[in-house]
Amino acid sequence: MVLFVRASRRLSDRSPHFLGYSPVSFYFCAQKPFGMEIRLKAGAGFPNRLLYTLAVIAGVSVANLYYNQPLLDMIRQEMGTSTLAANHIALFSQCGYALGLLFLIPLADLRSRRRILLVDFTLLILALLATAAAPDIGVLHVSSFVIGVCSVVPQFFIPFAAQYSRPENKNRNVGIILSGLLTGILASRVVSGAVGEWLGWREMYCIATGMMLVCAVLVFRILPDEKPNFTGSYAALMRSLFTLLKQYPLLRLHSVRAALAFGSFMGFWATLAFKMAQEPFHAGSDVVGMLGLCGIAGAVTASFIGKYIARLGVYRFNCFGALLQLAAWGLFAAGGDHYGPIIGGILLVDIGMQCIQLSNQAPLFELCPSAANRINTIFMSCYFIGGSLGTLLSGTAWVLFGWSGVVGTGALLTALSLIITLVAKR
């Protein structure tokens, strides 16, 4: 027997009718002993408690994708493999993430988001355990790929928050989810660097397994079990991605220029561990992880800039973000052998990246609200294809030309993003 209990909660984005606590249009469903369902109405408001819980889960989940970055040189030494093969650990995880975005996120329009996530968490936990026990680099490549595929958890939450938020608070709420995601990325580098230095890189993945188990339980308890908004087959659902891509030129524009900027961003982080391991630094994974803390500016930026997008315009945000990234690469080129320029560059590249991502991603949900998951799929798939490209190019440039090659690659990708923005404006 299904028992519905009407609940009152303060909303993070109140309508004019809410002056405090009052009855709202969602319900807890005591259908399962360990779970509860919250029923929301599109555009009516998003519960504050749910919003921040999803932001935390988003951060902890996406961290799995970035634990390897400070650990790459440590893994290379233990496995006795080449620098390029170690770099491919990050490449495989990025490629897996892009494929997960392409094939898993659209399912939220066809199947229960909560059930998809529970299966996803199960596979992710198994992949993390396989990584911790990996006997050679080949197994590590495969498990990293699966981790990438299954780490798309935050991308289920972003369109969900956009769909149910009030229009005037949509960008703000998306920014809060992104802020949680970015905080997870930053914390992942710091934590994995420290754990790798003190305990070992395998122990980091054992700890990650336990955290994913906790997240799976939380998702089961708090996430609403929504009705699908697409009635066709999975094949028809995937074909609709191409229809959306063809129908909305802005979707193509925003996806490509954000992807190029993210490729530049990932190119830096995928090679930093190798740079810091050499003269004059001779730094371990803990130092590389601590440098990730400098990117806290990016997470703070994402938490509040969303509300300014409509006021200042997407064009200005993109130009500003690209110029910050170019300035960062200038610092990396001029002062790559000193901590000061590297720290300053990290601050600039992180803030610039968040200006570009949020200003390109958030407005797209207005194009077709009923297809929010598929629009996010297209954007984020392109985004991480760009990240994979940047990781591959920077790793190759490092092997062939050293740090100057990495700097040239990153600056070129950012310049291409800026050129697309300027040409599209004209």
Radius of gyration: 21 Å
Helix-strand string: EEHHHHHHHHHHHHHHHHH
How many strands?
2
Task: Give, in spatial order, the strands making up the sheet with the most strands.
Answer: 1-2
Amino- and carboxy-terminal Cα gap: 61 Å
Instruction: Look at the helices and sheets and give the structural class.
Output: mainly alpha
Mean of pLDDT:
84
Q: What helical percentage do the residues reach?
A: over 70%
Sheet with most strands: 2 strands, antiparallel
Shape category = globular
* Beta content: under 5%
Short description:
With 426 residues, the protein is mainly alpha-helical. The chain has 17 helices and two strands.
How would you describe what is shown here?
With 426 residues, this protein is an all-alpha fold. 71% of the residues lie in helices and 3% in strands. It is built from 17 helices and 2 strands. The protein has helices at residues 48-62, 72-79, 83-103, 113-132, 137-150, 153-164, 170-198, 201-222, 234-247, 249-277, 285-291, 296-305, 309-312, 314-334, 339-361, 372-401, 403-425; strands spanning 4-8, 23-29. It starts with a strand and ends with a helix. The model is unreliable at 1-37 (pLDDT under 50).
